[in-house]
Automatic annotation (TrEMBL):
This is Radial spoke head 1. The keyword Secreted does not apply. Residues 1-13 have a biased composition (Acidic residues). Residues 21-32 have a biased composition (Basic and acidic residues). It comes from the Eukaryota. InterPro entries: MORN (IPR003409). One of its GO terms (cellular component) is nucleus. It holds the Pfam family MORN. The lineage of its organism: Eukaryota, Metazoa, Spiralia, Gnathifera, Rotifera. SMART domains: MORN (SM00698). GO terms for biological process: axoneme assembly; spermatid development. Residues 1-57 are annotated as: Disordered.
Amino acid sequence: MADDEEEVGEEENTNNLGSYEGDRNEKSERHGFGKATLPNGDTYEGQYQNGKRHGTGTYRFSNTARYVGEYVKNKRHGKGIFYYPDGSKYDGEWNENVREGDGTYTYPNNDTYEGEWKNHQRHGKGTYTYAATKAQYIGTWNAGKRQGPGELQFNHYKFVGKFRENYPKGKGKFVFKNGYQQNGEYHITST
């Protein structure tokens, strides 16, 4: 799954609650530890408070996706790990069902991004590692793209400079392992 796509398997609305085994409060609401099976086949096992998922728990989607982590008022909130059907995984902070804060995303091809997130996208400081080549981008991101100062490191050289919309833009330099440097001004051109 691309990290800028909508979340896989939104959790089912609690208006149709399905079956439940577990603790209840004096109002007969789900409260404490419980296990639920929803009408769509999803399951949840974990903490409830006043009828809502609240605390730690595991939500299993019928499409094989799975979330293990913290909930606040029925939403993924705090620390948690989301396992996607395509084999990718996000391990990090959530804010009201949105990847936001610090986290690590492992893609199906084993590329990884470790850093800051906002609105499900790479945003802020972070490091993207390409599994096949071991190349890395270390720098700033904006709305999922390389943006601002950064370093693109390869096996025998690196580019140090500014990026715009994923590409080098403005002053920058290539630095080679033997110490040589190539300084220049980089412009985005269309082909």
